[in-house]
Amino acid sequence: MALAALLAGVLIPLGLNPFSQRVAAATPPLPSSAQLIDQRSFNVLDKVLPPSEANATTLFIWPGVTEESLKAKPFHVYDDEFYEVIGSNPTLTLLAQSDKDPLFHEAVVWYPPTDEVFFVQNAGAADAGTGLNKSAIIQKISLAQAQAAKNETNAVGKVDVITVASNPQVVNPNGATYYKGNVVFAGEGQGDSITSALYLMNPQEPYNTTVLVNNYFGRQFSSLNDIAIHPRTKDIYFTDTLYGFLQDFRPAPGLRNQVYRLDEATGALTVVADGFTLPNGLTFSPEGNYAYVTDTGANHGLRGWNYSDPASLYRFDVKEDGTWENRKTFAYVPSGVPDGVHCDDKGNVYAGCGDGVHVWNPSGKLIGKIYLGATSANFQFTGNSMVICAETELYYATFAATGPPIF
Ligand SMILES: *[C@@H]1O[C@H](CO)[C@@H](O)[C@H](O)[C@H]1NC(C)=O
Ligand SMILES: *[C@@H]1O[C@H](CO)[C@@H](O)[C@H](O)[C@H]1NC(C)=O
Ligand SMILES: *[C@@H]1O[C@H](CO)[C@@H](O)[C@H](O)[C@H]1NC(C)=O
Ligand SMILES: *[C@@H]1O[C@H](CO)[C@@H](O)[C@H](O)[C@H]1NC(C)=O
Ligand SMILES: *[C@@H]1O[C@H](CO)[C@@H](O)[C@H](O)[C@H]1NC(C)=O
Fold it and tell me: What residue stretch is flagged as signal peptide (predicted)?
């Protein structure tokens, strides 16, 4: 209801005013958890620091704001279009926290039958103690518990975080998505002998798994990273990239960094795109007409950063036959790298970046952020809410926008 009123406030004057759409749009009231960001307030700075001091790994704090003020009202409105995303009462709740162990990394998957959300530890991060000798773990929470805590900013301890023992184990899981009643994980592999593979996992006990594909014509993948299901064909698209190697738990690559497509019915495995530095997250627009791929090339894992490499989102047209064309640079992020990427049901594009989740409209205009002041590698819509991983922190956000249907 609140949203309907909000929309009417924005849209009806637009329709009636014959002179100017921009002037007519009545700005809705700013929710108490939101703040306006006027880019003109920092387009000219007295002092612009060199890359050794201001770079992709640093938070941008401009005159008039502090890190605390940016976090205090975490819904940052860069453009009026963001009001429709956040609605009248967006909330952000810290659900769980760890000291140093990056337990809340990626593979955020909502499983509606049990209303649970799965996620995984950061395989290969120094503080995880995983990688070559030990696999990252899978964990889950109950969405009902998160929902019950939504009016609190800090609900640590109120939500149970439960470890899931996949069997046979998904080794070094990274990305994942819901797929036909199961979760499909990209396992990065371990050392020379446990190759990288796509695993299907039953999301209920005994969490049994089946390997879907573990090679390309007899050659090992480098380390599979993330997965998306095409909404029309239900084909499985996934990225292969170098993080297992760059985090010292996989051999030097034997294949190009690229995006694959698996037709589960025929078993056909093909390549749909290459030309990336480190292809990472991927998703489709709600109708499946566009594919988005993030390139986290600037982040070389344990080898550090190269700021002239991509921190970019690319968009492709998806043709009727499922192949891709017309690569376009959709966005370049100033903070960290864009990692996990998802669309809402209106086609707005969300990506996990160095300071939280950034949101662009379908033409690539930054319209807002869910600001964490920390890196989010991935997140997932859970209806008109979202579970957000931020390495040592797990968040729950509620707002007006809704995720697209899952298959
Ligand atoms: C990036 O900026 C941070 C913070 O100022 C600094 O510690 C780091 O050394 C910089 N990185 C490089 C490669 O210069
Ligand atoms: C893995 O185990 C081997 C043999 O025990 C050891 O030499 C190596 O340091 C371990 N590597 C990591 C990353 O823990
Ligand atoms: C959260 O607060 C709103 C009013 O601000 C209230 O309507 C709602 O019931 C509360 N939800 C929970 C789960 O406490
Ligand atoms: C799990 O086991 C059940 C019972 O054998 C089987 O029907 C199902 O396909 C398995 N699921 C996966 C993902 O392996
Ligand atoms: C960064 O990447 C560019 C382009 O690939 C390369 O030319 C350059 O040598 C790299 N710099 C470092 C420090 O790795």
Answer: 1-25
